């Protein structure tokens, strides 16, 4: 019996353990931190051995195969030792994909991947397909493969998950954009991160499709130097394309050899230019898998959007409060500031991942009347914007930040939580940060 070691006892780890057990592996889950009670219960239920708060190296190095959770870096000494010993170390999406014949739609990018994944799933499901949504969102892919039988999977995939693939091959891959993010995991080299994102195309061939943003210079220059085998379907809001999705005045036009479909932009449920692009990508996927035009049009007009992404919370005394806690990097915050049309009281800060805030400067000068820092270390934000806005306040708890915003904001303003940073200094994750913001606003 082959021995499968699962590093990390979270969603992807426990999902992999369940699938591994089902497929006849001897499975052992090892987590250097604490495993949540709900996951321990699942492991106990399936009779899977586990350990927490340590890695018993002697045992782990006997593995035939290792699944490493995405949160664990390749530079961890234990992982390096495993690789040196010739033990294959793979990601959950690689492991799970070996046990399904379903068609896979893989969606990655620095920003927009959650919205694009949810919208694609929404259209495919309403179009009558037997489809599951997993990856970085919802249930783990491995758990779904173990427990369900879908014909299609729409997967949101992070660069960390792509780093651990060998044969993983999506039939349709989508790359929404590439901006510097997670550089702390990539030796602070942008080119390493770019290469990681393009792994989504690594095993594709001419029967597969690659949908990407042609307006993104980073993607364009990489493609010019690294040709890929899949069929290219670009989208653009700047130029008209013979093939792909483009903008013609206030109409989205999707053209391939087989069909043309047109949709009015004012029918889109999601606001902002970035969401125009997310919609183009999702609509192209839907067309490729045979969804009817009418269904696509209907779905893009009634889609609710991702939680914690430009989520309107409440209007209080003619001030709009918006929760954009999912904006964990500068580019996501750029989209948020770009889409708000009124003066902004901006709540920003958290764990900086090597951020360069200067690209936000034009938008901050134009729209932001006050900055409320919400983080343990706010020096970089203060340095960059201290002389640009009239008012900059430091806070160290969500309730305090929201109360300060309430005092500062005037009729017609927007209070925007768009942190441009990770959340781990003061919160469990970006969802916790967003939920706290919503609760504090509701308690005003």
Automatic annotation (TrEMBL):
<keyword id="KW-0963">Cytoplasm</keyword>
<comment type="similarity">
    <text>Belongs to the MurCDEF family.</text>
</comment>
<dbReference type="Pfam" id="PF08245">
    <property type="entry name" value="Mur_ligase_M"/>
</dbReference>
<dbReference type="Pfam" id="PF02875">
    <property type="entry name" value="Mur_ligase_C"/>
</dbReference>
<dbReference type="GO" id="GO:0051301">
    <property type="term" value="P:cell division"/>
</dbReference>
<dbReference type="InterPro" id="IPR005762">
    <property type="entry name" value="MurD"/>
</dbReference>
<keyword id="KW-0961">Cell wall biogenesis/degradation</keyword>
<keyword id="KW-0131">Cell cycle</keyword>
<dbReference type="GO" id="GO:0005524">
    <property type="term" value="F:ATP binding"/>
</dbReference>
<comment type="function">
    <text>Cell wall formation. Catalyzes the addition of glutamate to the nucleotide precursor UDP-N-acetylmuramoyl-L-alanine (UMA).</text>
</comment>
<dbReference type="GO" id="GO:0071555">
    <property type="term" value="P:cell wall organization"/>
</dbReference>
<dbReference type="GO" id="GO:0008764">
    <property type="term" value="F:UDP-N-acetylmuramoylalanine-D-glutamate ligase activity"/>
</dbReference>
<dbReference type="GO" id="GO:0008360">
    <property type="term" value="P:regulation of cell shape"/>
</dbReference>
<protein>
    <recommendedName>
        <fullName>UDP-N-acetylmuramoylalanine--D-glutamate ligase</fullName>
        <ecNumber>6.3.2.9</ecNumber>
    </recommendedName>
</protein>
<keyword id="KW-0547">Nucleotide-binding</keyword>
<dbReference type="GO" id="GO:0009252">
    <property type="term" value="P:peptidoglycan biosynthetic process"/>
</dbReference>
<dbReference type="InterPro" id="IPR036565">
    <property type="entry name" value="Mur-like_cat_sf"/>
</dbReference>
<keyword id="KW-0067">ATP-binding</keyword>
<dbReference type="InterPro" id="IPR036615">
    <property type="entry name" value="Mur_ligase_C_dom_sf"/>
</dbReference>
<keyword id="KW-0573">Peptidoglycan synthesis</keyword>
<keyword id="KW-0132">Cell division</keyword>
<feature type="domain" description="Mur ligase C-terminal">
    <location>
        <begin position="308"/>
        <end position="421"/>
    </location>
</feature>
<dbReference type="InterPro" id="IPR013221">
    <property type="entry name" value="Mur_ligase_cen"/>
</dbReference>
<keyword id="KW-0436">Ligase</keyword>
<dbReference type="InterPro" id="IPR004101">
    <property type="entry name" value="Mur_ligase_C"/>
</dbReference>
<dbReference type="Pfam" id="PF21377">
    <property type="entry name" value="MurD_N"/>
</dbReference>
<feature type="binding site">
    <location>
        <begin position="109"/>
        <end position="115"/>
    </location>
    <ligand>
        <name>ATP</name>
    </ligand>
</feature>
<keyword id="KW-0133">Cell shape</keyword>
<dbReference type="GO" id="GO:0005737">
    <property type="term" value="C:cytoplasm"/>
</dbReference>
<comment type="pathway">
    <text>Cell wall biogenesis; peptidoglycan biosynthesis.</text>
</comment>
<feature type="domain" description="Mur ligase central">
    <location>
        <begin position="107"/>
        <end position="286"/>
    </location>
</feature>
């Amino acid at each position: 019996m082959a021995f499968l070691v699962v590093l990390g006892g979270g969603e992807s780890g426990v999902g992999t353990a369940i699938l591994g057990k089902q497929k006849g592996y001897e499975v052992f889950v090892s987590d250097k931190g604490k495993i949540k009670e709900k996951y321990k219960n699942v492991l106990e239920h399936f009779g899977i051995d586990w350990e927490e708060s340590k890695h018993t190296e002697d045992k782990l190095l006997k593995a035939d195969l290792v699944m490493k959770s995405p949160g664990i870096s390749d530079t961890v000494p234990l992982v390096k030792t495993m690789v040196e010993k010739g033990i294959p170390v793979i990601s959950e999406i690689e492991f799970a994909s070996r046990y399904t014949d379903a068609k896979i739609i893989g969606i990655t990018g620095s920003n927009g991947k959650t919205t694009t994944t949810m919208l694609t799933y929404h259209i495919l499901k309403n179009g009558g397909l037997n489809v599951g949504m997993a990856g970085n969102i919802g249930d783990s892919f491995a758990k779904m493969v173990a427990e369900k039988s879908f014909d299609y999977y729409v997967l949101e995939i992070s660069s960390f998950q792509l780093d651990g693939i060998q044969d993983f091959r999506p039939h349709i891959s989508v790359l929404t954009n590439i901006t510097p993010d997670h550089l702390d995991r990539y030796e602070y080299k942008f080119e390493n991160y770019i290469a990681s994102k393009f792994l989504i195309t690594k095993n594709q061939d001419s029967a597969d499709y690659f949908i990407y943003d042609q307006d993104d210079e980073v993607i364009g220059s990489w493609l010019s130097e690294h040709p890929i085998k899949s069929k290219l379907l670009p989208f653009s809001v700047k130029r008209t394309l013979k093939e792909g999705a483009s903008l013609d005045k206030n109409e989205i036009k999707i053209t391939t050899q087989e069909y043309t479909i047109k949709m009015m932009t004012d029918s889109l449920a999601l606001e902002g230019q970035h969401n125009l692009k997310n919609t183009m990508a999702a609509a192209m996927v839907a067309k490729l898998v045979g969804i009817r035009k009418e269904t696509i049009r209907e779905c893009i007009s009634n889609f609710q959007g991702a939680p914690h992404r430009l989520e309107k919370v409440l209007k209080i005394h003619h001030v709009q409060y918006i929760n954009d806690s999912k904006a964990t990097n500068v580019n996501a915050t750029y989209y948020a500031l770009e889409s708000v049309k009124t003066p902004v009281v901006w709540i920003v800060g958290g764990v900086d991942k090597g951020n360069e805030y200067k690209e936000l400067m034009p938008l901050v000068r134009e729209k932001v009347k006050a900055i409320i820092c919400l983080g343990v270390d706010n020096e970089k934000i203060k340095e960059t914007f201290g002389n640009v806005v009239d008012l900059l306040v430091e806070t160290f708890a969500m309730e305090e930040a929201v109360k300060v915003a309430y005092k500062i904001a005037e009729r017609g303003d927007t209070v925007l939580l768009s942190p441009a940073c990770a959340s781990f200094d003061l919160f469990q994750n970006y969802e916790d940060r967003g939920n706290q913001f919503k609760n504090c606003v509701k308690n005003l």
